[in-house]
Amino acid sequence: MSTTLIQPTETGIAVKNLINGQWIPGDRTFESVNPANRTHVVGTVPLTPRDQVDAAVAAARAAFVPWRQKSWVQRAEYVDNLAQLIKRDLEALSRLVTIECGKPYNEGKADVVEALHMAQFMAGAGRQHTGYVVSSEIPAKDAYIWRKPKGVVGVITPWNFPFAIPLWGVLPAVVAGNTVVFKPSEETPVLGHKLAELIQEAGFPAGVLNVVHGMGEETGDALVKNKDVNVVMFTGSRAVGSLIKREAVAGEVHKFVATELGGKNAVLVLDDANLDIAVNAAVLSAFKTSGQRCVSSNRLIVDRKLEPQFTERFLEKVRRITVGDGLDPKVFMGPLVNQEGVTKWHFHNEKAIEEGGEVLHHGKELTEGALAHGNFVEPFVYRFEQYKPGTFCLREEAFSPHTCIIGVDGLEEAVRVYNDTDYGLAMAVITEDYRKWRYVRENADFGLGYVNLPSIGAEVHLPFGGVKGSGNGHPAAEGAIDYLTHRVAFTVNHAEEILLAQGLSADL
Ligand code: UN1
């Protein structure tokens, strides 16, 4: 059992699609480049046309019947094989995450470890309950709530967790008996390809897991509009998620679209906060992964009583943040994923200034020397002494190292300010007072809540997903099985006569 894995110097991998167990090269291709050095081509990747996407869906459809006839335990065995392979290749895969998506090596490794944890969790899930027996009005009847797979699942994932997030969707789908067509992000297709290689090596039957590469407008569009796709699991931007929801379900009542769409997350620093925890949680929430997590915090909502000390200590740490190629162990922030990310960062910074934010740390775009060909920017920090409702900068996700300190008076204003966005994904509150965090838990809108921690760092066996504009529930991790199975009612009579519920007469 061996696969060839990319070393830091290796370039130009010829990525192929995986359809029905066959490797299919692309007629048209695009290049995936290293965001720390755009002259470094990591791979050449197929632009998959509509008819090839349809062929992948047809392969998944054909594989569905024999696959669902296996037991949950049998299907989970393949996932266990995959877990072993991820463990074997952990180091090389971690380096590849850094090379293709830019995250520092330790974060690349955490991404692969998170994927491994999902594989371990789902391998075990094959031996968990697959439904319930419930009581009936008639003593001789057993009623079951029984989970059945929905069919073919299209999984479309982002570049910021190129190894973990695909497995959040793909693995619950296949363990539950669905088959999959997976489209990796066009920013990290070589990692998608490595995953496809491991899927092949793990021995999944042909057609159970298919991988197609390309752009959202062509390949993704073909996948979400295919009538034979029963569920779409999408993680990415709110704009694309909304479009997919509209397009995918138009005229297709059976189709379900599960979305996980980012946030305008925050750290709430209350008046009794431990300042060491508050400052560290704020730096990690705002700037880990260069602010490119859907759970990154663009807002630090700080009680006015602590705000001056907090700000001074926060800025001290921000000034020491190192930016550079993530393969260098001293680097805290790697590059942004692409030049559009850099443009967007400039745009959000300019909006913050235009809307009256007081700039506290004006990070620069770094374009000199060894960084000349990468997408490097420094942190940008600004302040609103009073909350300013209705602003773009305090309501829209920046997905970059851009954060605002907002002064508030007390717990209730902190929560009001926190809730004043269209999103509701991740929230961290820093307090020593159990009554205060309980108030926040009950009154703030979020899917992931933390006390005395950053807003990042979720574990796979917890549900992951937000409310409001952050998505429609838990299309990822622990919660995914709910979207990937249909719970059927199944009732069995053990008597020798027919007795009906609600006192309904069975007399003929
Ligand atoms: C994302 O933010 O896009 O909770 C995913 C975390 C990670 C997953 C983040 N485990 O920070």
Please describe the topology of this protein.
Layout: E1 13-14, E2 17-19, E3 22-24, E4 29-34, E5 37-46, H1 50-69, H2 72-88, H3 90-101, H4 105-125, E6 131-134, E7 141-149, E8 152-156, H5 164-175, E9 179-183, H6 189-201, E10 209-211, H7 216-225, E11 231-235, H8 238-249, E12 256-260, E13 265-269, H9 275-287, E14 297-303, H10 307-319, H11 339-354, E15 358-362, E16 365-366, E17 376-377, E18 380-384, E19 402-408, H12 410-419, E20 426-430, H13 434-443, E21 448-451, E22 463-464, E23 476-477, H14 480-484, E24 485-493
Parallel strand pairs: 1-5, 8-9, 8-11, 9-10, 11-12, 13-14, 13-20, 14-19, 18-19, 20-21
Antiparallel strand pairs: 2-3, 4-5, 6-7, 7-24, 15-18, 16-17, 22-23
Fold and architecture overview:
There is one protein chain. With 508 residues, the chain is of the alpha/beta class. It folds into 2 domains: 268 residues, Aldehyde Dehydrogenase, Chain A, domain 1 (3-Layer(aba) Sandwich); 187 residues, Aldehyde Dehydrogenase, Chain A, domain 2 (3-Layer(aba) Sandwich). Helices cover 36% and strands 23% of the residues. It contains 14 helices and 24 strands. The chain has a 7-stranded mixed β-sheet with strand order 15-18-19-14-13-20-21, with helices on both faces. A 5-stranded parallel β-sheet has the order 10-9-8-11-12, sandwiched between helices. The chain has a 3-stranded mixed β-sheet with strand order 1-5-4. Strand 11, helix 8 and strand 12 form a beta-alpha-beta unit. The N terminus is likely disordered. Bound molecules: 2-aminohexanedioic acid (UN1).
